[in-house]
């Protein structure tokens, strides 16, 4: 992240395990997220290409910790066909704040998912219907 990245500091930590609960040392966790304005590097102009994007390898106990900021909710594009669908359906364009994760380990199926924040705005009404 940028020096002095705006936003509420967040330490995201955990342990990667397999489906039986066995720790996975050496698992690769790729993570990307919006910034405090709800903007993503590589989509919004003026943000360094790899800002708030990166990868980390879990330790001998499958554990990891990432120091970042809490992402903000954001609106999906409201122009083009997406915008016409939203307007026709009468939806709003908001997505709840989330972290994108892709977790991989040799011999295991790769998991790509999103994690949300308890009591976050738009959880009950995610335009992408991905939160619940
Ligand atoms: Fe996202």
Automatic annotation (TrEMBL):
Gene3D superfamilies, sorted: Aromatic compound dioxygenase
Pfam family, one: Dioxygenase_C
Domain Intradiol ring-cleavage dioxygenases: 12-40
Annotated transmembrane regions: none
Tree of life domain: Bacteria
Family: Belongs to the intradiol ring-cleavage dioxygenase family.
Protein name as catalogued: Intradiol ring-cleavage dioxygenases domain-containing protein
Organism: Streptomyces hyaluromycini
Lineage of the organism: Bacteria, Bacillati, Actinomycetota, Actinomycetes, Kitasatosporales
């Amino acid at each position: 992240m940028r020096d002095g990245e705006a936003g509420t500091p967040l330490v995201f930590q955990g342990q990667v395990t397999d489906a039986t609960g066995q720790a996975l040392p050496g698992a690769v966790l790729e993570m990307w997220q919006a910034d405090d304005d709800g903007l993503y590097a590589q989509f919004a102009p003026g943000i360094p290409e790899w800002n708030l994007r990166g990868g980390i390898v879990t330790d001998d106990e499958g554990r990891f910790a990432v120091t970042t900021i809490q992402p903000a909710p954001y609106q999906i594009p409201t122009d083009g066909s997406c915008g016409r669908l939203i307007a026709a359906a009468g939806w709003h364009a908001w997505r709840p704040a989330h972290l994108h994760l892709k977790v991989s380990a040799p011999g295991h199926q790769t998991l790509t998912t999103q994690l949300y924040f308890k009591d976050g705005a738009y959880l009950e009404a995610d335009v992408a219907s991905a939160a619940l």
